[in-house]
Request: fold
Amino acid sequence: MDPQALAQAELLGLHARQVVEGYLAGEHRSPFFGFATEFAQHREYSQGDDLRHLDWKVLGRTDRYFVKQYEQETNFVAQILLDGSESMAYGSGSLSKLQFGKQLAACLSYLILLQRDAVAVGLFDSALRRYLPRSNNRSNIHVIMGQLAACEPMAGTRVGAVLHELATQTPRKGITIVISDLFDDEEQILGGVQHLRYVGHEVVVFHVMDRAELEFPFEGNVEFVGLEGVPPLLVRAHEIRRSYREEVEGFCARLREGCERNQSHYVLVNTGDSLRDTLSGYLAFRRKTGRNRRPGL
Amino acid sequence: MSFLNPALLAFASAVAVPILIHLLNRRRFQRVTWAAMRFVRASLERNRRRMQFEDLLLLALRCLVVGLFALALARPALRSASSFFGGSRVAAVVVVDQSGSMSATDGTRSRFVLARQAAEAAVDAIPQGSAVALLLAGDRVAAPVPEPSYDLNLVRKSIRDAAPSDLGSDHAVAISAALEILRAQTVLRKEIILVTDRQAVAWRRLPEIGNALERAGAETRLRVVFVGEPLEDNLAVVSLTRSAGFASVREPLRFEAEVVNAGGQPVRQVRVTLHLDGGAPVDESVLDALAPGETRRVTFFAKFPDEGFHSVTARVPQDRMPADDERTIVVPVVGEVRVLVVDGDPESNSAFFLRHGLQPVAPDAASRYFLQPRVINAGQLAVTRLADYGAVILADPPVLAAPVLELLEHYVVDGGALIVFPGPKANAEFYNREWLGRAALLPGGLGRLRSGGDMEDNPLHLQGSGYKHPVFALWNDAGSGSLATPRFRAAWELEPAPSRTNSNGGLEVTEPMVLFSDGTPAALERTVGRGRVMLFASTAGTAWNDLAVRPVFVPLLHRSVASLTDARERRYNIHAGARAALRLSSELAGREAVVMGPGRPGRRTTHLLKASGGAALLEFEETDKAGLHRVNLGGNGAPLAVFAAQPDPGESALADISGERRSEIGRLAQVIDWTSDQDLRASFERERMGLELWLPLVLGVLLLGVTESWLAQRFSRPK
Reply:
């Protein structure tokens, strides 16, 4: 690894650490706790038990109070897939989508390793380019950061194909976190999510969009030059702003709906927002909803 | 469709400007490297047709705005269109007939008063924003408002200030002047509104009017507004002349007046009176009956009490056309006339007969006779002051030296009278070269000398009747004797000088005064400068003819001299509307003379007397009113000069145009019979076709401009 990449990796790790530790200092509990636990048996409720574990269905059928007991907590495997395609190189502000995605991936990796769970990191564009096998060794964080920092946008995106490939290659259940702008065929993407779900993965999709891509703030004649070899388009930007936003919102809505249909999390990430807020918001949401989920979700 | 400023159509090329701006704008853009191309493309696909439509719509509107503005600058006009926009403005010339016939009244109002009212109504009927010029016209044109003016109040005031005149009628003159004014106007519609009576004589040049209107084009429309009612009765004095001869103190002078019954009914017992200096009648005559259209000549005699300018007026009873009920002429009465007889051949007796013919009285009465001849030989001519003589007679003139010939030329040009009786000593070649060719002094050249042989047996005689020249008109009356009795045994063939253009621009044709029995000229006359010259074919003595011993010799000689000197008198009797040019004493040069017009009170105008040719020249053009004009210094004292403007005799013929003539006029013009207080607007608007489109186009440009701005703003909103 060259010194510049190393420096970038250090920065990335430092930043991830700041974000995650800042978060944990406030929450004191990992939101990923129990992700990989499975239901074992019921036992009768006793005073002091958390009411959230009360099995209401049993109560409804038998009029008796039982709480659900789980198997012993085990380390879970989270694989983080970061889109490194050319479209991710766009950024209207100080950060490109790829840089934002790297930071997000770094934070999640750090967080997962911090609670001694295993994390695997994959970098893809039109295919899976690099894949760091799962590891729960914290010392591997430097390797992950280095790989993330060294990632440069190269080619077009084929998110769906990559998800299918991973679903085939990683049969072990775990959490798959996809960080991408998802500029690919919607059906392919959702097919890949469905495939992952089918093999038992919980899928979390971070849909990374630049603020300009969401708001389209341009005025006057603008020639848009495509990042992935797409021919340029000359438009009067302000005259198509509304329909552009409709297109984007429609795209996001369809992805969200598809993800929800496959019982996956869809998180729209605006690179203009603070990474800390974005991560905190999602983890808070997950902490609230995760414990009521069925096992495996 | 036509264009009033077609050159400005070139601005239509500016239509390319919006297109160029549009194309240049497409080259000015911001370049952005972009990832979410799929959404841009999808949006573009969704909006492409709308954006293309909006682009094209705005481009079309901008081109249309520029194009229509260029079109408006070129002032397009539809020849025929309904006047939805109230009709385009016009350039109009209102012509008010000012001729003598317009003074005819219906008992309360004259035709001219009605014409003024109709003219004001015509101005009121002009579309808003139009310009109007005003002409007052008879056989000449005055222009109170010479160019179309937007100040219609000025035009109305000028109409109200207009006064009737005694000019003749010729609508061709007025319409020609109006067309000349309108030629420079660049408007869609041009109108000539002629307010006149129905007098037929005014339309005698209708074909020329038609040709002029045709040349002017379809945009020029003539409207004829007829005013007044037909006048059944009109008795007029259409001519007053005095007989040829000298007007001298206490000598009876004959006057002839022509009275015409221009009405449609016979009249009886017409009393015609003659007045001296506006006083009581000095002579009168009663005409028993005058049939419709009949003209009768009435003879009067009058004596003048003293020298100087006297006015003579012939008058008939007043009727509804008062302008022609009297006619006045000015007669300058002289005390004596000095005549210089130059004896060119002492061997001939021409000078003898001339001297005694000019002064046919006993020697003791000779000094009191009004003609005072003096006989000199040709050698004395060079040292004689010619200006002291009213007439110079050259009897058998020899070859005269150039300085002498130059003296004679100056004398005639300055208003002198010259009579030449060429005899045997006349050198035809010298006469023709120097007198006719170089100096243009003679009315004709000398041809072959006809003498001897057959002439002795068959002498020539003067024509026996049909005299047209005033000198010889006396012998049209057989009671005055016969001019055919004198026999001419020798005579020069006279060759009339070619026609030439005089100082007033008119063509001057030399006509024989009288002919020999074989039809060749016996005497010629022509105007030279301000004077006149007579050339006879034979001698004044008995060498070649026996005229001098015939009874006709003395009256012929006297009438010839008087005719020449009377030429000066003509400047005191001019046609109404003609320019008066009077030569006064040179001492008056530089002073201001006051001219008092006819009527009470007469029009008073002041003029500067200019030095010209050894005299003070008064030029006066405001002679449109007939009657006596007096010239004096400051309006007091005896007049320096008097002159009279004569009304046009044609104006007495009040016959209306025939139905056929009216139809012919109707083919050229809109004809309206105006009645008092009639609104002409409706009559005019029925015919006012055509629409100038610049105003609707400008409104369209504004509307399109606003629409374009609104659409551009609306289209550029974020979508």
Notes: Residues 39-70 of chain A form one domain. The mean pLDDT of chain A is 79.
